[in-house]
Automatic annotation (TrEMBL), chain B:
GO terms under biological process: 3,4-dihydroxybenzoate catabolic process
UniProt cross-references to SUPFAM superfamilies, sorted A to Z: Aromatic compound dioxygenase
Protein's recorded name: Protocatechuate 3,4-dioxygenase subunit beta
Family the UniProt entry places it in: Belongs to the intradiol ring-cleavage dioxygenase family.
Length: 203, 241
């Protein structure tokens, strides 16, 4: 019999407590190597769409905020087009789509200044509700955690979202909903473990 | 951009979230099962970073934090390899970021309190973008092992942290590279979160005397493998098909 000759993916390891040195060196006081930290600015003032801020925290199983996590987000522009390698067209040139934030070193709180994403189709053409992909790494997290943030004020779109619809325990869906705080502000807390544990995905 | 979806991640090859030998994972691991779905555009796309963002010394940790005319202290090494996917194809134009302790095992980070001194000429961060065949390289000093509070006397093996972007956000990966022959590797609770010896060996870089520059720097080879993509009939880019 012939042998399949695929390689195996490199095994993941924790980002450890000093992920900031490599990913946001200016944040941790290493200046002069990179002019700015990657993913710090997602939008220019002229970016299309509703300008929003997303604030939140990552909490461990004891209810303590992680003060050494790194959170990355990836999302479509206001028209539902991804910057980068998009087969459907050119995204808003004033919007990066990618954000990276280490959170405050005392409170663990992070804020992304971004735009509200448009709807993106599934491979079969059905529309997904507006969402932001989150990826969380930190000391103690052996493999980066994927989740999605949806908007609690998009009830109709959320109700027909194919990914939310796959979640068997529908009482867990609210863990993926960011709550509006007025003035384009949203709050999204991520709970790694225990009560109201956030839904994490294997994509 | 490929419409080919990703090979499913083999979660039995990666470390599990809950690995009590590594104590911090106990309260930072989800207790519910992950929910699977086939990747959509949200996972198949990812940020693209251009060479124009790189500074001249970004891949040279010997000098990118050093005063003019100075260099970091420690054994000089070159780390090189390719970013590949599981089908063995080079993954071009993707960002590779690295960070590490200095030769004495000390990180330049305000929350680090190890007694070994900082090196005034060593910052510990670097980055590069893979070439058309997926190749990358950087030069640095060999990092030292260091103690950490897990059990009473745990020491990390010498290692370099790697953060790698693929062409899709579902390929996002952070891992660590270890050095051939280090006796601390098999004693490390973080290494031992990985279930199989074979998978651990994938993170151990061999010494490469052929790429070693005589009288200058030793070389270590470290290939990084990202998730593969299924082929589609609709496109024929070298990566993603």
């Amino acid at each position: 019999m012939q042998r399949l000759d695929y390689l195996k993916e490199s095994p993941s390891q924790t980002a450890g407590p000093y992920v900031h040195i490599g990913c946001v060196p200016n944040f941790c006081g290493i200046s002069g190597v990179y002019p700015e930290d990657l993913g710090g600015v997602m939008r220019k003032p002229e970016a299309r769409g509703e300008h929003i801020t997303i604030t939140g925290c990552v909490w461990d199983g004891t209810g303590t905020p992680l003060r050494d996590a790194m959170v990355e987000i990836w999302q479509a522009d206001a028209d539902g087009i991804y910057p980068g390698n998009e087969p459907r067209g050119q995204a808003d040139p004033n919007f990066a789509g990618f954000g990276r934030n280490p959170g405050d070193q005392n409170t663990g709180e992070w804020t992304f200044e971004t735009v509200k994403p448009g709807r993106v189709p599934m491979p079969d053409g059905r529309l997904q509700a507006p969402h932001v992909t989150f990826w969380i790494v930190a000391r103690g997290i052996n493999i980066g955690l994927h989740t999605r943030m949806y908007f609690a004020d998009e009830e109709a779109a959320n109700a027909e979202d194919p990914i939310l619809g796959r979640i068997e325990h529908q009482n867990r869906v609210p863990t993926l909903l960011a709550e509006p705080q007025g003035q384009g502000a949203y709050r999204f807390d991520i709970r790694l473990q225990g009560e109201n544990e956030t839904v994490f995905f294997d994509v | 951009m490929s419409d080919g979806t990703f090979f499913t991640r083999d979660r039995g090859w990666h470390p599990p979230a809950f690995a009590p030998g590594y104590k911090t994972s106990v309260t930072r691991s989800p207790s519910r099962a992950l929910i699977s779905f086939p990747p959509t555009l949200s996972e198949q796309t990812g940020p693209v970073f251009g060479h124009d963002m790189l500074g001249e010394l970004d891949d040279d940790l010997l000098h990118n934090y050093a005063a003019p005319g100075e260099s970091a202290i420690g054994p000089r090494i070159i780390v090189y390899g390719r970013v590949l996917d599981e089908a063995g194809r080079g993954v071009p134009n993707v960002l590779v970021e690295v960070w590490q302790a200095n030769a004495g095992g000390r990180y330049r980070h305000k929350k680090e309190g190890y007694v070994a001194p900082l090196d005034p000429n060593f910052g510990g961060c670097g980055r590069c973008i893979s070439g058309e065949d997926g190749s990358y390289s950087f030069r640095t000093v060999l990092p030292g092992p260091y103690p950490w509070p897990n059990n009473g006397n745990d020491w990390r093996p010498a290692h370099i942290h790697f953060s790698v972007f693929g062409s899709g956000f579902a390929q996002r990966l952070i891992t660590q590279m270890y050095f051939e022959g280090d006796p601390l590797i098999w004693r490390c609770p973080i290494v031992n979160t990985i279930p199989s010896r074979e998978a651990v060996e994938q993170l151990i870089a061999p010494l490469d005397m052929n790429r070693t520059i005589p009288m200058d720097s030793r070389a270590y080879k470290f290939d990084i493998v990202l998730r593969g993509r299924r082929s589609t009939m609709f496109e024929n880019r070298p990566e993603g098909n």
